[in-house]
């Protein structure tokens, strides 16, 4: 029986590296694209990867790479992924997330036997709609309130337009927050974890700087999320949206308290105004009913263990740098 083949754009990133592991462990032949100046640190432990240099803003190169690989599945993860940074670099965000996605879609349209195009969107597209519902369902209205969220929604529409016009086998994941080892410190959990680890070894004063800890977030382990992506590829219905989430929400303050409980060092908390964002959504919680019913999606990882893994990752990384 021949292996299923998959192309992961953005394979060297945090989520891309975990998705590569997930697919390799499930008998996929894995191809990946990366930018020439990107680090391979996240995937250095993986064998049997087939890698291609690719700037997704280069439309002809996108077509050439996709045509050469002829994957059964395309997981489009390459993106401008920071909500906060999108406020500073709006044009770059739109170029990468809209034009870049369009280029990948156009390359994929030329494949005769593509089984599924999995586009990774974000719960951020719900925006302030989230305040009106206790649990967000895929049918609820969208109201993006950041350049990042707008760019992701436009890219969703590009997927659906091509599905309607050309029967393009696209499926969209509206992924809620997820975390784990290797995540960039632009995000809350790795930021907290890195600061704690630095304080423990005396590299920083015993004060952790934070943004708005009152925001509620639905957070999963990245390893659960990438399992969901694989199930989307195999079971997701074309032209459909699926929430990938835990179905639970809690304030960031609770998550920070859990991380601090893992440390024997006395650490105080200081609010840093530069870490507050006007675009922050106060409350996010997803419904996973559709994903459970249609994909048999389940959460395997306990969030407390995930937080411990994140902190231990930064402890190890910082110890190696000293």
Number of domains: 2
What is the CATH H-level superfamily of the largest domain?
NAD(P)-binding Rossmann-like Domain
State the strand order across the main sheet. Answer: 3-2-1-4-5-6-11
Order of helices and strands: EHEEHEHHEHEEHEEEHEEHEHH
The radius of gyration over CA amounts to 19 Å
Percent in strands: 15-25%
CATH topology of the largest domain: Rossmann fold
Largest sheet: 7 strands, parallel
Q: Rough shape?
A: globular
What is the share of helical residues? 40-55%
Task: Examine the secondary-structure arrangement and name the CATH architecture of the largest domain.
Answer: 3-Layer(aba) Sandwich
N- to C-terminal separation? 49 Å
Give the SSE map:
Layout: E1 4-9, H1 14-24, E2 28-34, E3 49-53, H2 59-69, E4 73-76, H3 83-88, H4 90-109, E5 116-122, H5 147-166, E6 170-175, E7 178-179, H6 188-200, E8 207-210, E9 216-217, E10 220-221, H7 222-235, E11 241-244, E12 250-251, H8 252-261, E13 268-271, H9 289-295, H10 303-321
Helix pairs in contact: 1-7, 2-4, 4-5, 6-8, 6-10
What does this molecule look like?
By secondary structure, the protein is α/β, with parallel strands linked by helices. The chain folds into 2 domains: 4-178 and 221-244, NAD(P)-binding Rossmann-like Domain (Rossmann fold, 3-Layer(aba) Sandwich), CATH 3.40.50.720; 180-217 and 248-284 and 301-321, UDP-galactose 4-epimerase, domain 1 (Alpha-Beta Complex), CATH 3.90.25.10. Helices cover 41% and strands 17% of the residues. Strands 3-2-1-4-5-6-11 form a 7-stranded parallel sheet, sandwiched between helices. The chain has a two-stranded parallel sheet with strand order 7-10. Helix 1 packs across helix 7 (222-235), helix 2 (59-69) crosses helix 4 and helix 6 (188-200) packs across helix 10 (303-321). The longest helix has 20 residues, at 90-109. The radius of gyration is 19 Å and the shape is globular. The relative contact order is 0.14. The mean pLDDT is 97.
């Amino acid at each position: 029986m021949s292996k299923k083949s998959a192309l992961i754009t953005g394979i060297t990133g945090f989520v891309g590296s975990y998705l590569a592991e997930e697919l390799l462990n499930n008998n996929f032949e894995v191809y990946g694209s990366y930018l020439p100046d990107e680090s391979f640190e996240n995937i250095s432990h993986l064998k049997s990867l087939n890698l291609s240099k690719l700037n997704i803003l280069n439309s002809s190169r996108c077509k050439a790479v996709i045509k050469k690989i002829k994957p059964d599945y395309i997981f489009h993860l390459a993106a401008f992924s920071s909500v906060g940074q999108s406020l500073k670099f709006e044009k770059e965000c739109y170029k990468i997330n809209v034009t870049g996605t369009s280029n990948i879609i156009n390359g994929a349209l030329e494949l005769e036997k593509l089984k599924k195009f999995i586009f990774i969107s974000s719960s951020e597209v719900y925006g302030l709609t989230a305040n009106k519902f206790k649990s967000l369902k895929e049918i609820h209205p969208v109201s993006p309130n950041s350049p990042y969220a707008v760019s992701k929604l436009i890219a969703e529409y590009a997927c659906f337009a091509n599905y309607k016009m050309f029967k393009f086998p696209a499926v969209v994941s509206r992924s809620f927050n997820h975390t784990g080892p290797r995540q960039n410190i632009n995000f809350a959990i790795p930021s907290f974890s890195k600061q704690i680890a630095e304080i423990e070894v005396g590299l920083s004063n015993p004060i952790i700087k934070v943004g708005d800890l009152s925001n509620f977030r639905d957070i999963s382990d990245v390893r659960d999320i990438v399992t969901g992506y694989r199930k989307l590829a195999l079971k997701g219905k074309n032209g459909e949206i699926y929430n990938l989430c835990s179905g639970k929400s809690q304030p960031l303050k609770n998550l920070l308290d859990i991380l601090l409980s893992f440390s024997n060092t006395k650490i105080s908390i200081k609010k840093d105004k530069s870490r507050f964002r006007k675009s922050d959504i106060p409350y996010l919680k997803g419904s996973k009913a559709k994903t459970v019913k249609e994909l048999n999606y389940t959460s395997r990882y306990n969030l407390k263990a995930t937080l411990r893994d994140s902190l231990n990752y930064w402890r190890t990384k910082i110890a190696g740098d000293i």
